[in-house]
Amino acid sequence: MPYRRLPNTNQARLRSLQQAVNMGDYVDLYDLAFSYKNWEDAKTMLVRYERALFESKQCSDNQFKTSKQLQETAKMTRLYVSHFIQVLNMCVQRNEIKAEYKELYGLDPANFTVPDINTDDGLIEWGRRIIDGEQKRLAKGGTPIYNPAIAKVRVHYDIFPEGTPKQHLPQH
Q1: Tens digit of pLDDT for each residue in 99-140?
Q2: Which of 1, 35, 60, 77 is the most buried (most CB within 10 A)?
Q3: How many domains does the chain have?
Q4: CA distance 161 to 128
Q5: Which structural domain range is residue 86 located in?
Q6: For residue 171, pLDDT beyond 60
Q7: How does DSSP classify residue 126?
């Protein structure tokens, strides 16, 4: 008996299922290599399989589109959070803000590097710390940091976490 390959891609499976169903339309049912019941099952399966492939492609396209938007949002949020931390560090170095106030942000007063915000979790964590820390410092009578203002940082920060749940595929 010759070796016959089974279809191993979704499109190849779809084509072979379509050929089997079409074969029943053109060939007498008694001359088919499979039973009438199998032909009826194949017709039902073909409709379901085409719908499943369509939904899968739609989900994949939606995920790709939202992924691009999320990456752009994350890039801007990273830029604003990083810039705010850099400006805060410069204010401390110029003695405009006391070094111990950096502790309100969760930052080491002696360290002037920007913490790791390359991951989404790190960005969410440090964004929240920076926003909360600035509010605490302002509540103690400090003057606001501008360029970027914390309000601008907060706008970008609030938009970023909203987009993250959209990345998950819908449950069926």
Answers
A1: 999 999 999 999 999 999 999 889 999 999 999 999 999 999
A2: 77
A3: 1
A4: 11
A5: 66-165
A6: no
A7: H
Look at the block and give the residue holding tokens 């920076």: 130
SS3 38: helix
* Residue 83 located in a structural domain: yes
Instruction: Please report which confidence band the pLDDT of residue 7 belongs to, taking 50, 70 and 90 as the band edges.
Output: confident
Q: What are phi and psi of 105, to 5 degrees?
A: -90, -5
Residue 52 lies in a domain: no
- The alpha helices in the chain, defined as continuous H runs, are 10-26, 36-93, 120-139, 150-163
Q: Is 84 exposed, middle or buried (0-12, 13-18, 19+ CB in 10 A)?
A: buried
At CB < 8 A and 24+ separation, what contacts does 156-161 make?
A: 156/73, 156/76, 156/77, 156/80, 156/81, 157/77, 157/80, 157/81, 157/127, 157/128, 157/131, 159/73, 159/77, 160/70, 160/73, 160/74, 160/77, 160/123, 160/124, 160/127, 161/124
| Residue 60 counted as domain residue | no
Residue 48, in any domain of the structure = no
- In the chain, the percentage of residues whose pLDDT exceeds 70 is 92
Phi-psi region of 106 (alpha: psi -120 to 50; beta: other; left: phi over 0): left
| C-beta atoms surrounding 54 within 10 Å | 10
Q: Comparing C-alpha atoms, which of 72, 76, 85 is closest to residue 133? A: 85
